[in-house]
Write a structure and sequence with these properties.
Layout (H helix, E strand, L loop, with lengths): L2 H18 L3 E3 L8 E5 L1 H13 L3 E5 L2 E5 L2 E2 L4 E5 L3 E5 L8 E2 L4 E8 L2 E7 L2 E3 L2 H13 L19 E6 L2 E6 L2 E3 L6 E4 L2 E6 L2 E4 L8 E4 L2 E6 L2 E4 L4 E5 L6 E13 L4 E7 L2 E24 L4 E23 L10 E13 L25 E4 L6 E13 L14 H5 L22 E18 L8 E17 L9 E4 L2 E2 L1
Parallel strand pairs: 1-3, 2-4, 3-6, 4-7, 5-9, 6-10, 7-11, 9-12, 10-13, 11-14, 12-15, 13-16, 14-17, 15-18, 16-19, 17-20, 18-21, 19-22, 20-22, 21-23, 22-24, 23-24, 24-25, 25-26, 25-27, 26-28, 27-29, 28-29, 29-30, 30-31, 30-32
Antiparallel strand pairs: 8-9
Amino acid sequence: MPIKTRIALVAALVAASMTASAKDYNVTDFGAKADGTTLNTNIIQHAIDYVSAQGGGTVVFTPGRYLTGTVYIKSGVTIELQNGSELLGSTNPWDYDKNPIVNWQSLIFAIRQHDIGIKGQGTINGQGAQTANNKVDIINRGLYDDPLRNGRPYEGNRPMNIYFRECENIRVEGITLRDPASWNQTYDQCRNLVVDGITVDSKAYWNNDGIDVIDCDGVVIRNANIDAADDVFCFKSHSADHVCQNVVVENCVGRSSANGLKFGTVSRGGFRNFKVRNLTIYNTYRSAITFATVDGGVIDSIEVDGLRSIHTGNVIFLRTGRRWNNGKEPSMSNIVIRNVYAEIPAGKPDAGYSYEGPVEDMPRNISPASIVGIPTCKIRNVTLQNIEIVAPGGGNPLYAYRGTTPAELNSVPEMEKAYPEFSQFKELPAWGFYIRHAENITFDNVVFRALRKDYRPAIVADDVRGLALRDVRVYEPDSQGKQETVLYRSTRK
């Protein structure tokens, strides 16, 4: 089934399932207190269980602040957070379950349920900074076994706001998600998921991803505005037996001290059939787009159409590797990225975040966009069309240097087992785009603009078979006569 037809069916199916759950139940009728201090966990859970037993309906939270620990959504139940209502996560770490199926903590769980949702104009506030700090105190007093890493507990021992696992027909709509102690919202091995019109303000603590989608089939994410301390849109594949597939992301805006749109880093099964349209990423420390398969997974049939990347550390980073592959070879092929405008700053793009991205892999000049495979797992069939990248230029060979002689190009490390980040190679020999270990790469109507002269050429291709450069233009001050394209061990078509 074509992905457009599949996604339309997903949206219609989920909408129909939500309309079927028509009856409303006010959570205060069950005894919930909206005073921000009374712990309502048991009451909220009773309301959810009751409504599910009646065949489904909506548990309504009217304006007020409802303090709670972990609750579980059951089949047929939608939570409605009306404008002015706030589901407030307890700051007591003992108020959260660690679910034995997923081995994570969350404020809201749904495990193997169907026809569920969260909607409205209200807020889920995890109060994550205080909760995480209280967890650290408990650990330091010897009451909880969790060796601290960099002064913070393991992500799975800090509560998310939402974790849905193996659920079907899900709709999350309109709500605001704030400040979990870990990732914000995770959808894991789910089918038929629609996330529409949400706002995420998630900068209270480390690992505050905007949204994580793991090994799901049939996903629509649209009209989202996400400001996150970690990756904005993060797609993962935790199981070698599953693939995250049939996904549409459209009309979304993201800001992050990590990556904008990311596939990985966990990439055991892989990612297939994605359509990304009209995406804006701004003030983001790492890459606007990162596609990484380093754990044996496949990345295939991905289309990005319409990206505005403003004040981001990097715009495009495609990478294969061997980190946790267990003998399974990764693959990446059939990628189309078109209609992109990008501005790369000279300074740190996430300055001012409470949790800024770390200054790492220095010294280096500004890194180029890159497509970097490994010798035995080349990246294949990538088209870059209608793209303009504005780079700061100013690369200084006295600060960091990588030349374009064979010896100098061979000195770029392979780093097959490294965590994939665009900066990992330190200095790269191009200021615009670096391509290595790839086949059938097409540039079509691509413009590179440097604001200052750079010692490096705009484009370097190393071990690339079938490179097409169609209407590629380079603008760099004071560069008359400079060779802007260097091909090494590469062929053009």
